[in-house]
Structure formats: structure tokens, C-alpha cells
Design a protein that fits this description.
CATH topology of the largest domain: hpI Integrase, Chain A
InterPro entries: DNA_brk_join_enz
Number of helices: 8
Oligomer: single chain
Helix content: 25-40%
Strand content: under 5%
CATH superfamily of the largest domain: Intergrase catalytic core
Radius of gyration: 27 Å
Mean pLDDT: 79
Distance between the termini: 45 Å
Organism: Streptomyces flavochromogenes
Protein name: Integrase
Length: about 260
């Protein structure tokens, strides 16, 4: 899609892709910064007809205002313009595309999307010392600055409503662990019964490299886990240190 966007820009200027200059790349980057994203007709309304008048008509029935933040999930809705991450991804794709054709000898001699002047002589964070933080080095000359994302959060009222809507202690124990230890959702699912000692308030998870990591959890999470284990024992679920912690997720016949 990034290449298609660039080629459409060159088609409008009647320029071949291997004849593009750095001035064209600069204009394209500036266009992505100020232009609005194309509005596509929804598939539900394709049979009703489409015209330029309906395409240019403002959307008065839109429920979500572009660029606003959802009060429940904390997620920002997409705005009418291209986001900084979209523009940065497009710059990376086009720069590596022309680098590939330069190596193959099928593209222009000069890359229209060059690296920054401070990066042309060496790679990013060259000769970095392990005891020092990484420096924010600029990659491409036309690459935009990506703002840091603020961590999303859910209000306490909605979290309490979520717990109240859950019917089983297992379903309440899992979100309690996820919220308190900040691990990936799939990591606590691979834990075994010996990996959650309530006296230490820790849970051992296995990362993607199968390395073990101990994470602290809240007291409420272990309370819900204990209630879940007691219900599982009454239902005949086997108990053992090497067995999965969430046994009923592995056994479809047990609810």
C-alpha cells in the first residue's frame, strides 16, 4: 500500500518511478503531512449508488468523531489525516525499496529517500556502550518524528463493571493477574500450578524464549485463584504441581 500510494503520486506528476528525485520525495512527504486520507464507500452502501456529490457530502451521521479518545478503552480513533506512524512506515518502505534496486542496478543512482546526514557514514547507535541509554537518532531525512504513546488505561468504574459481569471465578482470576502483573495475555496461560505460590505473591511465566520470569501480582488475584482452585477440586479437576494452572481452559468438557 505504501508503494501504491507513492506510484499514484508519481502517476499524477507523470514521472517514472526510477526517475524520481529527492525533490519529488520531499513533496510526497509534505503531501502526506497535509493531505486527508481518501474516504472509501462502505460496502453496505455500494448498492445504493455512488456519485461525486455523495462522496463530497460531509458525514453528519458519523457517531465517532475522528481524533477523539474513547472514554472506556482509552484508544484514539483514526483522524482524517495520515498518522505520524503511517508516514514513518511509508518512508521506511520506500527508502528500503530504492536501496534494493540500487544494489540490483535497476533503480536510480541516488536514492530519493536518503538517510539523515548524521546516519550516512555509520549505522544507528554505532559503538553504543551497554551502560548508556540509546540516543534517539534520526533515520531518514524525510522521516517524521513519532510521538510517544501514553499508556492506555480503563477507568476503575468500568473495571468493576467488567468483574461484576463475569460469572466464574476463573474468568475473574485471569483479568486480575493480567491487570496486576502487566504481562502479555498468553504468558500467564502457560503457567503451572507450582508457578503461583500465594505466600510469595509471585507468578512464574514463560516468555517466548521459554525463559522463566517472576512477576509480582496483587493479593486479590491470588484470592480469586484460590477460589477457582477450590471449585475445580469439587468438580473433580486433578491437582498437581506440574499440571496447568488453568486446567479448565485445557479441558473442553469441564466448565
Amino acid at each position: 500500500m505504501d508503494l501504491l500510494r507513492w506510484w499514484r503520486f508519481l502517476w499524477a506528476l507523470d514521472i517514472e518511478w526510477n526517475r524520481a528525485t529527492r525533490a519529488d520525495a520531499r513533496d510526497f512527504t509534505r503531501w502526506m503531512h497535509i493531505a486527508n486520507k481518501p474516504q472509501r464507500l462502505h460496502w453496505r452502501h455500494r448498492d445504493a449508488g455512488y456519485s461525486e456529490k455523495t462522496a463530497l457530502k460531509p458525514r453528519t451521521t458519523r457517531k465517532k468523531i475522528p481524533g477523539t479518545t474513547n472514554a472506556i478503552t482509552g484508544k484514539v480513533s483514526p483522524g482524517p489525516q495520515y498518522a505520524a506512524r503511517t508516514r514513518a512506515h511509508c518512508e521506511t518502505v520506500l527508502r528500503t525499496f530504492y536501496d534494493f534496486h540500487q544494489d540490483e542496478g535497476t533503480g536510480p543512482i541516488i536514492n530519493p529517500f536518503p538517510l539523515d546526514r548524521s546516519r550516512r557514514s555509520s549505522r544507528a547507535n554505532a559503538h553504543h556502550k551497554p551502560d548508556q541509554p540509546f540516543k534517539p537518532e534520526r533515520a531518514g531525512r524525510y522521516r517524521p518524528t513519532i510521538p510517544k504513546r501514553a499508556p492506555r488505561s480503563i477507568p476503575d468504574e468500568m473495571l468493576n463493571a467488567l468483574f461484576a459481569a463475569l460469572r466464574h471465578t476463573r474468568d475473574r482470576a485471569l483479568p486480575a493477574f493480567w491487570v496486576s502483573n502487566a504481562a502479555r495475555a498468553e504468558d500467564p496461560l502457560t503457567s503451572r500450578q507450582r508457578d503461583a505460590p500465594p505466600g510469595q505473591q509471585l507468578i512464574v511465566i514463560r516468555k517466548g524464549t521459554r525463559a522463566h520470569q517472576q512477576l509480582p501480582c496483587s493479593t486479590d488475584a491470588f484470592v480469586w485463584l484460590r477460589l477457582y482452585q477450590e471449585e475445580a477440586r469439587r468438580d473433580g479437576v486433578p491437582h498437581g504441581k506440574n499440571l496447568p494452572l488453568w486446567w479448565t481452559l485445557r479441558r473442553p468438557g469441564i466448565h
